């Protein structure tokens, strides 16, 4: 289903803005071509990934994600696009605005629905406003505000965007927010994990070695599978682990099994799975990372186990992926949202960014004041973290 986000001008020099409630209505090749020329592409912004979120039932209206994908066209040419969702909650976003929603409610106003530009359940920085050029990107920004007004949304939020996204929205008067994640970066030179450990301070190195030794002493060995090497049975086992870990925390898993089926079919080259086996050869845990060979970047995503083994989580989710990245000469491993404990494993603080537009002028002013104070505190926090880096000298 498509509709214009706002009345579109009759002048032939001005583009058509369109809204689709199903990402599969958009052309994959054209979307992915825009992504490929963006400053910070990632596999999560490929249209196949976003289609799978919806077709699997993971990000759909029933779970609070109503697709409103915005696209800008010059005739038959797609010149800009972004994944947008109308939302009635703030789950699965990782940029927290619960306090804003509470403030609206206490003043008798509705914060939901809101319009969100993001990859569902995926806090990975990257380009969000895919565009041929700055002018096309500015049409997206205008279209988002027009769409939010048509849908009577309180606000629009663009999460984990790149620098071009930030500039386009700042020029339109949006509010900027900064948070922090923890990433490892390398120099592209292959090396062993043992060599990498030698670059860490002695205390940090000994702790990691002790944790890995305990896992090994429990009889655990890891099997690494990439792309087509991951069988359907492996995917089934991984999903069992993933589901059990969510249930152990009394939560339902965000992603359906069909989502991973689609990933195996449509984007197999973008996945590496680490399977832990015990001394009897039985599988006991699995972790999954996404990869981008062009960028030499890896992204920690999901993990789970069928029984508890001390320190297995750290080994499966950090040490095995880091070792794989090092051995293959990759440049970056992103450990996901939050977690100061990742610093002790060599992942350093990196600022992430989001942009926000609020329709209510008084609340916009209040949030702007809050973000200014939060931003100063975040800068101090990042500076403090950087003073406690875990390497002997400059990480290599």
Automatic annotation (TrEMBL):
Gene3D superfamilies recorded: 3.40.630.30
Domain of life: Bacteria
UniProt xrefs under InterPro entries: Acyl_CoA_acyltransferase, FemAB-like
Pfam families documented for this protein: FemAB_like
Protein name per the record: GNAT family N-acetyltransferase
Species: Roseateles amylovorans
